[in-house]
Design goal:
alpha+beta, Thiol Ester Dehydrase, Chain A, six-stranded antiparallel sheet, 25% helix, 42% strand
Length: 134
């Protein structure tokens, strides 16, 4: 298991439950993956949209966290919009790549591209609030 996967599993327990793996995590780019699984399906044998969105939220939230301004203690997703453009089917690995679009003092906006192999299967834009100590 990679250090990135260990970080994800220790900070977001749902990632361990779903089997999400960390590939890369820098302030400029976060990459996570999830293999198609018979336990995570919707009709037609496709990976459930909720699982796809969890992968996108994991990548986006991690990207936002790695871009926190000085003095901030965390992030929270306040808005997330996903366009589903295709399905993730048996044998596929879903790969989410998140990059920051805006890094501010109160919000961070992240774009996440979702691919199954070479196929673009979704795009997510998230706004994350910057959490500060109370």
């Amino acid at each position: 298991m990679s250090d990135v996967t260990d970080l994800l599993h220790s900070s977001m327990s749902l990632t361990k439950t779903l089997g999400i793996r960390g590939v890369e995590a820098t302030a400029e780019r976060v990459v996570v993956e999830l293999d198609w699984s018979a336990d995570l399906l919707t009709s037609g044998g496709l990976l459930h949209g909720g699982a796809v969105m969890a992968v996108a939220d994991t990548a986006g939230g991690t990207c936002a966290f790695l871009n926190l301004p000085e003095g901030a203690v965390g992030t929270s997703t306040i808005e997330s919009k996903t366009n589903f453009l295709g399905g993730t089917k048996e044998g596929d690995t879903l790969r989410a790549t998140a990059v920051p679009l805006h890094v501010g003092g109160s919000t961070i906006v992240v774009e996440t591209e979702l691919r199954a192999g070479d196929r673009l299967v979704g795009k997510t834009i998230q706004t994350q609030s910057v959490l500060r100590p109370r």
